[in-house]
Amino acid sequence: MSLANVSAGEVKMVATLVMLWLVMAVAPETPVGRALWRGFVEMPAQFLNRITRGHVLLTALLVATVVGVVWLIGEEAVRLLSMASPEALSWLVMVDAASLLDVAMGVVLVATSVRIGAAWARVGAAWRRVVRRPRAVRTRPVRTERAADNDDEEPRRAMAA
User: Is the dihedral of CA 60, 62, 65, 66 positive or negative?
Assistant: First the structure.
C-alpha cells in the first residue's frame, strides 16, 4: 500500500489514536489518562482473561465446520453460511444463556436448602418488626416531698455521698 492511496480520514484516525496513546503514556495520573487506560487497557485485558478452553474449542469447532462446508459445497457455501449465521449464533447464545440460568438456579437452590433455618429466622424477625404493637407510653409517678419529722427543720433532700 503506497501513501498516495491513503485517504484524509485514515490519516486523521491514525493521528487521533497516536494522540490518545501519547496522553496515556505522558499523563497517566490525570482523569483523562486514567479513563483512557481503563477503556483501552484494563477492560480488554479483563475480557481476554475470561476466555477459557471451552471458548477456544467452540471457536475452533465453528471454524472447522465452516471450512468443511465451504470445501464440500464450494461457492454456494458462502451464500448458505451467510443466510444461516444469524440463526446459528442465536442458537448458541440461547443454549449458553439457558445453561447459565440452570447453573444460577442450582446455586440458589443449594444455598437455600443449606441456609433454610437462617432464612426462616430472618423472615420471622422481619415479620415481628412489621406487626409489632406500639408500646404503651409510661409516665413516671410524681414524687412528693416528705416533710421533716421536726417542724423546725427544712424538708430533707437526698444527697449523694
Answer: negative
